[in-house]
Structures are given as structure tokens and as C-alpha cells.
């Protein structure tokens, strides 16, 4: 990716600061740049450590580190027999996160493997960008990195890793798949979009030198890239919906605590999981059905932890869970004695996902102020888009209500306020884009340059807008 060190460092600092502000128990953040292929050199860009007590963040690189510039090549940190396993290799090769929620059993702690000393609690998240965005649709000639067996990695994925975020936490304060790791995963997508946006901006400055001779072709290419960048800014609404999804989870948790007669999806899914787990062993000789059962368990577990809207949740049950159960019930007698129970649970599960929208249930939460128990479910089940952005003001007002008691309320307010400000910039950015394209097609080159300069200073950078 073409990004100047100064811009990349500023962007990484903004991202680390955002994560540390969102997560009280996070103590330090580091961003490593990965690339280019096939070398995949991993270089520490910057680190920020929060000072205990006043929250001041101190920036800089440690005095000694293998990942300080010039960093380590893929050949130096990838998995290989006889070499200590590194979490960095896991994140880069598999494009998956690594959480050290028990440093004493961290299989990829180099310090523990070499010296027997545990590291601290931390989470590492790869930052992904689509191959087609960086290299175009034709990726057949790309030279992929190789694992120690000589097999190319990333051939079967749509993404490349351009960075890795590492966040350190207070002892015993994180678990795999908890809210903190989900926040980091969401923000890693934002960093990927931001890095790609910076890549586009610097690429465009090179294209500008060729405008005089190739105005028409450059205009078409620029139109594609700018609009592509604007499309990628839809991450703002994904981030907004992630925060609103957290409020939705808290609302349903409030119902579970307060309304004993309501059977929610977690109770039903636990029973379905139990019915699979206790009978899988009875499928000896039916490898295909056994695999199907394991996949069903994974999908039911993912469904349990994903904050879906009711329509999406009901469709998940209809499309992913119910067909697999129907096949298990029809092709194996193992579940014959509980067939009726399974069918009843699946039916109740489709109704249970609408629990949070039931006004009669909401009225039973007498301990909440009437305004809160009325507005909370109304706003928590909104799928935010550009036309529904005005409702975000009501969400912020609800969070400011003294009767609204949810974890991390102040951080959620801060994040939603920042995202709202970013979302409100999009129409102006679209206007700027259209005017630039008009200048390029029909205006003078001087007019384009006069309008281009303020855009380059105030371009679509989520980090700088905050």
C-alpha cells in the first residue's frame, strides 16, 4: 500500500487512542504494518501506553524489539518446525485474531516458549483489505507468500493482511469473544478502510500528474476510485449498528433478569445444543451426519452470540438451523424420541427472537422509567442507514437519561457522537466528489487544483474528523 509514514503513524495513533478510550481495561496498543507480498515484512509503526491514574498516552517504540524498523520478514516469523510459534504468524497466515486470555497457557508466547516466562493478557487482530481493492479483479499473477511446507497462503481468501493491532489488558480482564475483542475487531475494519483511503489519496496525487495527457481515462479511473472510497465509508453505519446492537443485547438481558416467565433464545439454544452433544457419539458409522451435527452446533453457538435484528434472527433459524435439524431427524433414528421437542423448540425459537419488541413484555419492566422502557426497544431495533440518521440523536438522548443504566454508557455515547459527526460529512463529500469530476471533465486544470487542495486537507478520514 502507498501510504507515507507520517500519515500512517497519525492514523495508527488515532486508532490506538480510540481503542484505549473505548476500553477502560486496555493498557497499551501497538499497530504493525504488514507488506508487501510476498515478503510480508512486519514493522511496528507506533505504540501507545496509557499512564495509570491520569490516562495520558505516551507514544514511541520500545528500545529493543525485533519488530522495530526494519522489522521481520515473513520468512523470519512464520510457523516452522524447531522455531518458537508467534501470534503474529497466526494472525497473518490465517487472517484470524489471537487472544492471550491465559498467558500461562499461551501456546504462541515466544517468551514463554524460550524462557518459560508468561507474557501479559493481550489480543491481536489482523487488519484486512480486499485483494480486488488493492490489485484489481485479476489476481491470477499475484505472488503469494509460502508457508514452511512451500504452500502459498491467501490463495483461497478474498483478503490480504495489511496491518495487525495488538492491545494489552489488565490481568484477568479479557476472554476470547468478549465485547472488548469484538470492539477491536470492528475498529480493525475501520483501520483497514482508513488505510485504504490513505492509499487512494496518495495514489491519486500520482495520477494528477498525468491529467493533462490522459484527462478522459484518468477521470473514469478517479470516478471509480473516489466512489469506491465513499462506498467503503458505509463502515460508519456498520459501526453505529454494532453499538446499537450492544444496546439491543442489554435490553434483552434486562428482560431476562426481570421477566421470569419469558423464555429467551439462549435457553432454547442451550437445549438444542444439549440434544446434539449428548447423541453425536451414537452416530458412529455416519460420518457425514456427524459432521453436519458439528456444523449445526457451531451455527447455533454463533447465533447465540450475534446481536441480530429479529427479522435477521428468524431468517437465520429458517435458513441455517431448521434445515440441518430436519435432515438429522429424517436420516437418523437417534433423535426419534425427542422429535416433537425439537420441532417445538424450533417453532418457539422463531418467536423468541421477537421477545425484545413485545410491548406487553416491556410494560412488565416496572423498575424502569416509562420513557426508558418505551424508547429503549423502539431505538434498539432500528437498522441505521443514511435516512435514519436523525434517530441517532434520540439514541444519544436516551443514553443521557438518568434511568438508563447500561455498561460503558459514557464510552458508547462518545463513540456514537463521533460516528454521527462522520456520517453527517458524507453528503458534503459526495458533493465535493461530483464537483471534482465535473472540473476534470469540463473545467480547467487550474480550477481543479484550486478545489483539490482543500479536499486533500479535509478528505474522508474518520480519524482526522474526530
Describe the 3D structure.
Among the domains are: 5-176, 2-Layer Sandwich (Beta-Lactamase); 260-359. Helix content is 55%, strand content 10%. The chain contains 18 helices and 6 strands. A 6-stranded antiparallel β-sheet has the order 3-2-1-6-5-4, with helices on both faces. A hairpin with a 5-residue loop joins strand 1 (26-35) and strand 2 (41-50).
Provide the fold topology.
Blueprint: H1 5-22, E1 26-35, E2 41-50, E3 57-60, H2 74-77, H3 87-94, E4 98-100, H4 110-115, E5 121-130, H5 131-135, E6 159-169, H6 179-208, H7 215-232, H8 235-258, H9 265-277, H10 287-305, H11 310-331, H12 339-352, H13 359-362, H14 370-380, H15 391-399, H16 409-442, H17 445-457, H18 462-465
Antiparallel strand pairs: 1-2, 1-6, 2-3, 4-5, 5-6
Mean pLDDT across all residues, rounded? 85
How widely separated are the two ends?
Answer: 24 Å
Reading the helices and strands in chain order gives HEEEHHEHEHEHHHHHHHHHHHHH
Order of strands in the sheet with the most strands?
3-2-1-6-5-4
Shape: globular
What CATH architecture label of the domain at 5-176 applies? 2-Layer Sandwich
> For this entry, what is the oligomeric state of its chains?
single chain
Low-confidence segments, given as residue ranges, are: 455-466
Counting DSSP E segments of at least 2 residues, the number of strands comes to 6
The first-level CATH class of the domain at 5-176 is given as Alpha Beta
> Fraction of residues in helices?
40-55%
User: How would you characterize the largest beta sheet?
Assistant: 6 strands, antiparallel
Radius of gyration: 25 Å
> What share of the residues does DSSP label as strand, in percent?
5-15%
Question: Helix/strand/pairing class, anyone?
Answer: alpha+beta
User: Count of helices?
Assistant: 18
As for the CATH topology of the domain at 5-176, it is: Beta-Lactamase
Amino acid at each position: 500500500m502507498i501510504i507515507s509514514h507520517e500519515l500512517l503513524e497519525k492514523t495508527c495513533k488515532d486508532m490506538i487512542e480510540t481503542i484505549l478510550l473505548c476500553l477502560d481495561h486496555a493498557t497499551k496498543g501497538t499497530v504493525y504494518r504488514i507488506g508487501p507480498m510476498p515478503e510480508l515484512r512486519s514493522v511496528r509503526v507506533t505504540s501507545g501506553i496509557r499512564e495509570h491514574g491520569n490516562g495520558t498516552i505516551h507514544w514511541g517504540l520500545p528500545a529493543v524489539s525485533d519488530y522495530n524498523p526494519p522489522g521481520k520478514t515473513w520468512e523470519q516469523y512464520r510457523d516452522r518446525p524447531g522455531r518458537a510459534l508467534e501470534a503474529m504468524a497466526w494472525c497473518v497466515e490465517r487472517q484470524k485474531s489471537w487472544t492471550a486470555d491465559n498467558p500461562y497457557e499461551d501456546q504462541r508466547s515466544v517468551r514463554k516458549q524460550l524462557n518459560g516466562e508468561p507474557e501479559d493478557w493481550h489480543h491481536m487482530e489482523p487488519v484486512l483489505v480486499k485483494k480486488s481493492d488493492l490489485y484489481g479483479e485479476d489476481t491470477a499473477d499475484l505472488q503469494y507468500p509460502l508457508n514452511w511446507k512451500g504452500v502459498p497462503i491467501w490463495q483461497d481468501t478474498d483478503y490480504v493482511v495489511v496491518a495487525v493491532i495488538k492491545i494489552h489488558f489488565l490481568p484477568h480482564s479479557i476472554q476470547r469473544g468478549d465485547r472488548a475483542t469484538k470492539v477491536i475487531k470492528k475498529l480493525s475494519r475501520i483501520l483497514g478502510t482508513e488505510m485504504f483511503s490513505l492509499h487512494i489519496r496518495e495514489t491519486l496525487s500520482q495520477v494528477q500528474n498525468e491529467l493533462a495527457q490522459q484527462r478522459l481515462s484518468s477521470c473514469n479511473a478517479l470516478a471509480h476510485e473516489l466512489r469506491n472510497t465513499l462506498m467503503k465509508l458505509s463502515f460508519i453505519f456498520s459501526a453505529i449498528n454494532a453499538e446499537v446492537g450492544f444496546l439491543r443485547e442489554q435490553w434483552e438481558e434486562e428482560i431476562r433478569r426481570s421477566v421470569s416467565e419469558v423464555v429467551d433464545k439462549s435457553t432454547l439454544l442451550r437445549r438444542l445444543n444439549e440434544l446434539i452433544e449428548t447423541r453425536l457419539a451414537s452416530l458412529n458409522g455416519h460420518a457425514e451426519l456427524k459432521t453436519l451435527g458439528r456444523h449445526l452446533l457451531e451455527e447455533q453457538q454463533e447465533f447465540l452470540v450475534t446481536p441480530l435484528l429479529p427479522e435477521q434472527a428468524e431468517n437465520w433459524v429458517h435458513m441455517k438451523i431448521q434445515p440441518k435439524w430436519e435432515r438429522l431427524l429424517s436420516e437418523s433414528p437417534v433423535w426419534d424420541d425427542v422429535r416433537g421437542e425439537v420441532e417445538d423448540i424450533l417453532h418457539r425459537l422463531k418467536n423468541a427472537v421477537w421477545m425484545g419488541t413485545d410491548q406487553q413484555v416491556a410494560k412488565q419492566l416496572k423498575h424502569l422509567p416509562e420513557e426508558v422502557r418505551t424508547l429503549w426497544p423502539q431505538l434498539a431495533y432500528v437498522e441505521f442507514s443514511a435516512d435514519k440518521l436523525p434517530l441517532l440523536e434520540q439514541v444519544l438522548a436516551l443514553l443521557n437519561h438518568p434511568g438508563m443504566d447500561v455498561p460503558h454508557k459514557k464510552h458508547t455515547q462518545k463513540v456514537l457522537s463521533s460516528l454521527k459527526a462522520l456520517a453527517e460529512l458524507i453528503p458534503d463529500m459526495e458533493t465535493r466528489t461530483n464537483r471534482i469530476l465535473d472540473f476534470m471533465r469540463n473545467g480547467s486544470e487550474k480550477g481543479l487544483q484550486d478545489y483539490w487542495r482543500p479536499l486533500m486537507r479535509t478528505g474522508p478520514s474518520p480519524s482526522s474528523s474526530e
